[in-house]
Structures are given as C-alpha cells and as structure tokens.
Specification:
Order of helices and strands: HH
Oligomer: single chain
Number of domains: 1
Radius of gyration: 19 Å
Distance between the termini: 15 Å
Shape: elongated
Helix content: over 70%
Largest sheet: none
Number of strands: 0
Structural class: mainly alpha
Number of helices: 2
Length: 89
C-alpha cells in the first residue's frame, strides 16, 4: 500500500513537471529577452515586461495543448489502473 502511494505521488509530480516545464521555460526565455532589450534601451515600462511573456505562454499552450492533454490523460488512466490493481480487481 505504501509503495503504491509513493509511486502515485512520484508519478503525479513527474507528470506535473513534464506538462508545465515547456510553458515555463518559454516564459522564462521570453522574459529574459525582454529584460535584456529593456536594459539595453533603458525603457523601464512594467507592462512591456509582462505582455510578451503572457502572449508567448498562451501561444505555447495553444501549440502544446494536445500533448499536455495526452500526458494528463495517460496519467489519469495510470491512476485508474493502479486503483483497480490496488483493490484487487
């Protein structure tokens, strides 16, 4: 029982990382580029920092959405199969 719960927790954390990491890395990269542009041009507008990052993250979610849903669907199926195995069916 304990091993099942530990495996389930580990699988949940790994799935969360796999699904969220591409979007977060794209947001980080766009934020870094915008910060470098702001530093070189000395424009300190706060909205200039957030708008491109939000747009890039939304576009990446649109492009990677089917992959993300597939990963989450597979995780859900693993949970249900694990529960069936756990209760002995």
């Amino acid at each position: 029982m304990e091993q099942f719960l530990l495996d389930l927790s580990r699988d949940a954390m790994m799935t969360t990382l796999k699904v969220s990491m591409p979007v977060m890395l794209i947001g980080l990269a766009v934020g870094l580029v915008v910060s470098i542009i702001q530093a070189t041009t000395q424009i300190q507008e706060q909205s200039l920092h957030f708008v491109p990052k939000i747009l890039a993250m939304m576009v990446s979610m649109l492009l990677l959405g089917s992959w993300m849903l597939t990963m989450m669907k597979e995780f859900t199926l693993r949970i249900f199969n694990g529960m069936l195995t756990f209760i002995g069916l």
